[in-house]
């Protein structure tokens, strides 16, 4: 089986673990740099991106994560995890940095509190090859700009909420909260 790491410093770790295990993957909670070694794939969960930024530094994980992801480790970032992957945050909290592995600009909390916990079905995939994904949005970031080489895989109300660049997938929403396995199966297919 495949071993999938979940960054387990803060945020929605357990839901990702349950979903990945239901797909037959072995889950490893990642809190230390040496736990990145030997992974087939990695998940950066939702939570709070400013806290994730601080904790990844405090735990000595920032550079090891950057090295692994830039080195081709298939990675899925959801919500705050997407913000961590982005190379630009339009509205950072003072001093907020990211891992900067993907050519996207994110706008934090873009959907605002009125769609707090909104659940919807999105089209997921390249044009002509799309499937429905059940998605939850919680104070979700959207992507206001993507570089060449970044494929848009999902939109919500016209805005970009799902992308892929090489083996990195970034999504604004939470499929792990609806139990939809499409995006996680997509991640496993990249291993
Ligand atoms: N608003 C959070 C942030 O800016 C993200 C919310 C989430 O991960 N559900 O990091």
From TrEMBL:
<dbReference type="InterPro" id="IPR021196">
    <property type="entry name" value="PdxT/SNO_CS"/>
</dbReference>
<feature type="active site" description="Charge relay system">
    <location>
        <position position="174"/>
    </location>
</feature>
<comment type="pathway">
    <text>Cofactor biosynthesis; pyridoxal 5'-phosphate biosynthesis.</text>
</comment>
<feature type="binding site">
    <location>
        <position position="108"/>
    </location>
    <ligand>
        <name>L-glutamine</name>
    </ligand>
</feature>
<dbReference type="InterPro" id="IPR002161">
    <property type="entry name" value="PdxT/SNO"/>
</dbReference>
<feature type="binding site">
    <location>
        <begin position="138"/>
        <end position="139"/>
    </location>
    <ligand>
        <name>L-glutamine</name>
    </ligand>
</feature>
<feature type="active site" description="Charge relay system">
    <location>
        <position position="176"/>
    </location>
</feature>
<feature type="active site" description="Nucleophile">
    <location>
        <position position="79"/>
    </location>
</feature>
<dbReference type="InterPro" id="IPR029062">
    <property type="entry name" value="Class_I_gatase-like"/>
</dbReference>
<comment type="subunit">
    <text>In the presence of PdxS, forms a dodecamer of heterodimers. Only shows activity in the heterodimer.</text>
</comment>
<comment type="similarity">
    <text>Belongs to the glutaminase PdxT/SNO family.</text>
</comment>
<keyword id="KW-0663">Pyridoxal phosphate</keyword>
<dbReference type="Pfam" id="PF01174">
    <property type="entry name" value="SNO"/>
</dbReference>
<protein>
    <recommendedName>
        <fullName>Pyridoxal 5'-phosphate synthase subunit PdxT</fullName>
        <ecNumber>4.3.3.6</ecNumber>
        <ecNumber>3.5.1.2</ecNumber>
    </recommendedName>
</protein>
<comment type="function">
    <text>Catalyzes the hydrolysis of glutamine to glutamate and ammonia as part of the biosynthesis of pyridoxal 5'-phosphate. The resulting ammonia molecule is channeled to the active site of PdxS.</text>
</comment>
<keyword id="KW-0315">Glutamine amidotransferase</keyword>
<feature type="binding site">
    <location>
        <begin position="47"/>
        <end position="49"/>
    </location>
    <ligand>
        <name>L-glutamine</name>
    </ligand>
</feature>
<keyword id="KW-0456">Lyase</keyword>
<keyword id="KW-0378">Hydrolase</keyword>
